[in-house]
Amino acid sequence: MKRQSFLQMAGIGLLAIPAFATAAGNRNKKIKRPPYLQPGNTIGITCPAGFSLLETIQPSIDLIQSWGYQGSTRNYHWKDGPYIWRN
Amino acid sequence: MDHTFGGTDAERAADFQQMMDDPNINAILCATGGYGAVRMVDLLNFQSFKQNPKWVIGFSDITVLHSHLHQVVHVASLHSKMCGSFPKEWANADEVQQASILSIKDALEGKKISYPSMPVEHNRIGSAKGLLVGGNLKILENLNGSASMINTDGKILFVEDVGEPLYNIDRMFCNLLRSGKLAKLSGLIVGGFSNIKVDNPAVPFGRDIYTIVKEKVAAFNYPVCFDFPVGHIKNNFALKCGLPHQLIVENNQVQLTEI
Lengths: 87, 259
Known about the structure:
By secondary structure, chain A is of the alpha+beta class. Chain A has helices at about 1-10, 55-65; strands at about 20, 30-35, 40-45, 70-75, 85. Chain A has a three-stranded mixed sheet with strand order 3-4-5, covered by helices on one side. In chain B, strands 4-11-10-5-6-7-8 form a seven-stranded mixed sheet. Chain B is of the alpha/beta class and about 260 residues long. At the A-B interface, helix 1, strand 2, strand 3 and helix 2 of A face helix 1, strand 1, helix 5 and strand 5 of B.
């Protein structure tokens, strides 16, 4: 249920622009370049490896916000569940 | 919660999966490294992500994801500092720290990368073009032999590491050499090897990082540069893994440029 509310809360923002391929120099497979960010885009913060703490990442959240992006975090280590911040 | 991990393997994979698949999330910033990406990477499904890729950002243990994204998913990604390295007070951060962090913003917004590096007497002169790949040396050694390991042929490889004794750094380079990962490079970038552990002060290893690398690449002809601003160091600039770059190593200048 937490996940559902997270999805609803995160449910604003722009759709990702389809990436185009950059073929140069790769003989194996074309490497796709993700779309570059636009103002208002959302950056998700998560912990695929070690844990982090909200207080540790707060300076990065503040700075990214000052760059004009929104963000959302998910990490099971944060006991209060998903944390969303908005401009 | 699972001890040092940011959740159980299944939880971390579910978090990451959701961020990959949620169309309202445009980039995924890994909060920290540590250890654990290799335990969850095979739980991920990249089907939707392949169609709508987004920048995955991080370094160190996140090299697992960069390597897998390059070799298996065929999507570019951003090797850079993570949340814990952002200065607590931006105004109090020194110039290099600010520049390293701002390089993430520039890279994500589409600015082409172009970084100078210090000319070092051990550098090997030359010019190279190729896709930029790499990351943490320990992780590359760990991935070697798995599906996630990069085919380095024709590419510019960068490596960095922290807290390893010299003999172990040597061992890791031996792994890359003996598995053919150094043979057909277009160029080699050696980043920071910081906080090198002293294993036994009475019997030094007798080779520094320059000698270790020079021994391993002696049979090849591509350019090599040392002390590049990438690694577990303050000057750790954002690098776009998987995109074409040019490396120029001259006596009086070194430059890595996105092309």
